[in-house]
Amino acid sequence: MEKNSSSSRIDRKFIESNRRKEMKNLHHKLNSILPHQTSKEAISRSDRLEEATTYIKKLQINLEKMKEKKKLLLEEIQRQMKLMLKSPKIEIQQIGLTLEVVLITGLNSQLLFHETIRILNEEGVDIVNASYKVNEDSVFHSIHCQVQEEFGNETARVSERLNKSMHDYQPNACL
């Protein structure tokens, strides 16, 4: 029995020694990742653990603030992207005697289509076909026109007028 008791004491001492070494290593790891002290005074382990707890809580609060800021920034980016998609765009291409006008607008911008048709009529362009397609919150208008043979330099003027009407467009006026 005496042998058993001394053997179990040695086992407990060995276990306790390993536990202390492990705790020392863990404290060392904790100290290595925490901000360093500017003070030369020795700080007790319990104080250092308290500092670590405070530091971790501060990091958690900062993380939550950053997540909220990221969420707000992403929402703003999405809002800006939707506005960009809704702002009107126009492309004009002439191939031979055919003039193709592609107008991309928001759902509430039918006046731009009418203005485009009006400008084309004023310039003496014959509209052969006009169609549109709605895709989510955008409308894609396609206008096919026939031009006269001598119309070559006139395309630049038509393009300029159409681009100016897009530039002058005010979305709130169409609501």
Share of helix, binned: 55-70%
Using the CA coordinates, give the radius of gyration.
Answer: 37 Å
Calculate the terminal CA-CA distance, rounded to whole Å.
97 Å
Please report the number of helical segments: 4
Question: Biggest sheet, strands in spatial order?
Answer: 1-2-4-3
Principal-axes geometry comes out as: rod-shaped
Q: Based on helices, strands and strand pairing, what is the structural class? A: alpha+beta
Q: What do the pLDDT scores average to? A: 82
Pattern of helices and strands: HHEEHEEH
Number of strands: 4
Report the major sheet: 4 strands, antiparallel
Give the percentage of residues in beta strands: 15-25%
**Any low-confidence stretches, pLDDT <50, length ≥5?**
none
Structural description of this entry:
Helix content is 58%, strand content 20%. It is an alpha+beta fold and 175 residues long. Strand 1 and strand 2 form a beta hairpin. Helix 3 packs antiparallel against helix 4. The model has no long low-confidence stretch (mean pLDDT 82).
Gist of the model:
The protein has helices at residues 2-33, 45-86, 110-122, 154-168; strands spanning 89-95, 98-106, 126-135, 138-146. The chain is an alpha+beta fold. Helix 3 (110-122) runs antiparallel to helix 4 (154-168).
Mind sketching the topology for me?
Blueprint lengths: L1 H32 L11 H42 L2 E7 L2 E9 L3 H13 L3 E10 L2 E9 L7 H15 L7
Antiparallel strand pairs: 1-2, 2-4, 3-4
Helix pairs in contact: 3-4
